[in-house]
Amino acid sequence: MTSASWGKDMERPLRKRASFGQSLRHSLTMAYRGLLKIRRTPEQLFDVTLQPILFTLMFTYIFGGAISGNVQNYLPIIIPGILVQTVIATSIVTGVQLREDMDKGVFDRFKSLPIARIAPLAGALLADTVRYTIATVLTFVMGYLMGYQPGGGVGFVVIAGLLVIACSWAVSWIFAFFGVIARTASSVQGISMIVLFPLTFLSNAFVPVDTMPNWLQWFVNINPISHLVSAVRELANSGTIGTEFVLSLVSAAVIVAIFAPLTVRAYMRRT
Question: Which sign does the torsion angle of CA 72, 157, 133, 205 carry?
């Protein structure tokens, strides 16, 4: 190499940021790593395989007679509610596993690699969509075995499932943020449950809103979980896409827009 060409190489500016295409490829590679982890440790899937079955059976037979008179009338109400609650709760594992990987030094190695800064985080979250899909399918299958007949048909049931998976992926950014800033995996789970329980149980997932006290109804009506449950019910039970569907997607986009940059920034400071 001549001195002139060497000088030109030295003058060429180095790219400090990965392009969108590179970031996407790096994220998909990290997602593949996450899938390999699930394949090698299948016990990670215990919660998404057992929880939908147990929750569907328990909530349906406990509340069905009291709220709707019988189980069959309660299924169109509870199956969408159980679906949202189960899949959203599954996203907590994202933050817990993220904290465990950071404690083991895995993400320190990722930080030293020439990859997009968001790739390790986005890849881990993308891999967890497999868990959400399993929980979604099992919830609908359990409902069908118990007699649930969605009036919207298979097509709208699929749309409802994709909506829940997309919104759960967005919510997982919140728990990923907790995973980055918390000190231990157990504290991540504790903080996440404190946030999740009011959102899921103070919603319209299990009981009609008009049966609640007036002072509580205002929170339930603005709760994004309530909008998501209503959107799933409209899709699965009547085959309609309405305002609740749009509100759910907008809420998911807002969550990602806020917590994705916060999580990446906190991750770069902590690793």
Answer: negative
CA–CA gap between residue 199 and residue 195 (Å, rounded) = 7
What is the spatial distance between Cα 89 and Cα 26, in angstroms, rounded to a whole number? 27
Query: 3-state class of 152 per DSSP?
Result: coil
Instruction: Return d(Cα 141, Cα 152) in angstroms, integer.
Output: 16
| Residue 157 · residue 150 · CB < 8 Å | yes
* Per-residue DSSP letter, 85: H
For residues 205 and 222, is the Cβ–Cβ distance under 8 A?
no
More confident residue, 156 or 106: 156
> What is the tens place of the pLDDT at every residue in 205-233?
888 898 888 889 999 999 999 999 999 99
Band (270; pLDDT cuts 50, 70, 90): low
**Cα separation of 99 and 122, whole Å?**
14
